[in-house]
Amino acid sequence: MGDNIQSVIVPSELQKDHTSRMTKAMSVTAIVIFGLSLVWFAGMTNAEYLHDGTHDTRHSLVFPCH
Amino acid sequence: MLIRMIQTGLLAGFITAVIYSLIQSVTVTPIIYEAERYEVGSSIDHNSTKLATKDKGDYLREEIKRYSLTLLTNIVVSIGFAFLIVAGFVISKRKINPKEGIYWGIFGYFVFILFPALGLPPEVPGSVSTPVEGRQIWWVCTVFATSVGMGFGFFIKNTYVRLICIFVIILPHLIGAPNISDLKPGLVPLEIATHYVVWTLFTSLVFWIILGASSGMIYKRLSISSDN
After folding, report:
1. pLDDT tens digits for B203-213?
2. CA B209 – CA A5 distance, rounded (Å)
3. Whose C-alpha in B21, B188, B217, B220 is 20 to 30 A from the C-alpha of B126?
4. Rounded distance, CA B107 to CA B84, Å?
5. Is some CB atom of chain A closer than 8 A to the CB atom of B188?
6. What's the pLDDT tens digit per position in B51-88?
7. Cα–Cα distance for residue pair B79/B6, rounded to 1 Å
8. Per-residue model confidence (pLDDT) at position A34
């Protein structure tokens, strides 16, 4: 009887654990993409109209600039 | 979880950017302005607007615009870096608090400031250099190598892995950043340029420590409130 209960609980717990790990991996991937995009946009874009606004930050935080 | 990570990044990034902008405006920005006086006549001229606008009102408007845009850029960059710190929090599975956040901030300083600066030192406006695209490629490769090397080297406790990590960290420096030794000296006096390098490296360290500490503090608070 006890074995039966365990065989029901264990797979569902594993499923839950697997789902939460997937959610975590996707969340981390998403936040890294957001972060890198923002840093790239502000620190690495060389377009003239953006460069004028980002110039002082780029020089201060040691991004390569002109 | 994603919501908590975004909230932490937005809040820590914003707070850090505001504090950093104040520090920057009295430390680094005055040296940038000083250097730009020597930049007049060079190929890139940030002073043209300033010289063209003789009227005091116009000048003031230009200054406000410049400081506002810098604040805005600082906010964008800070939030971006804060997102990366929070990703580190989650991957590491360590207990997060302001002190732990400072460790991650110092990690960010090594990855994004110190190691790239060994090949490409902070450049005051008006200094000469190789085309920006080549330097950006080297910068990105160095950031990647340093983060991978330091990250794996710290968390994987194996001597062979750590030796490989040290090699990965120094590899971009063995290859070398785009060479500037063939170029003619710039127009900015050496005294201003060296002063600028020291202040930049110092204020960047302050920036990363504040960013790490505030990220750690906010993440901890939000974790406690979501657990209750």
Report:
1. 999 999 999 99
2. 51
3. B21
4. 11
5. no
6. 555 677 888 888 899 999 999 999 999 999 999 999 99
7. 9
8. 96
Residue A15 dihedral angles phi and psi, to the nearest 5°:
-60, -45
Q: Do B14 and B78 contact (CB within 8 A), yes or no? A: yes
Kindly identify which residue of chain A lies nearest to residue B5, measuring between CA atoms: A31
| Domains of chain B by residue range | 2-128+184-227
What gap in Å lies between CA B43 and CA B41, rounded to an integer? Answer: 7
Residue B60 amino acid letter:
L
- CB within 8 Å: A43 and B77: yes
Nearest to B141 by CA among B107, B105, B178: B178
| Distant-in-sequence, close-in-space partners of B20: CB < 8 Å, separation ≥ 6 | B74, B78, B203, B206, B207, B210
Question: B116: number of CA atoms within 13 Å, CB side?
Answer: 25
Give chain A's mean pLDDT. 82
Give the model's pLDDT for residue A19: 77
**Token representation of residue B72:** 């805005």
Domain ranges of chain A: 2-60
pLDDT digits over B143-155, tens only? 999 999 999 999 9
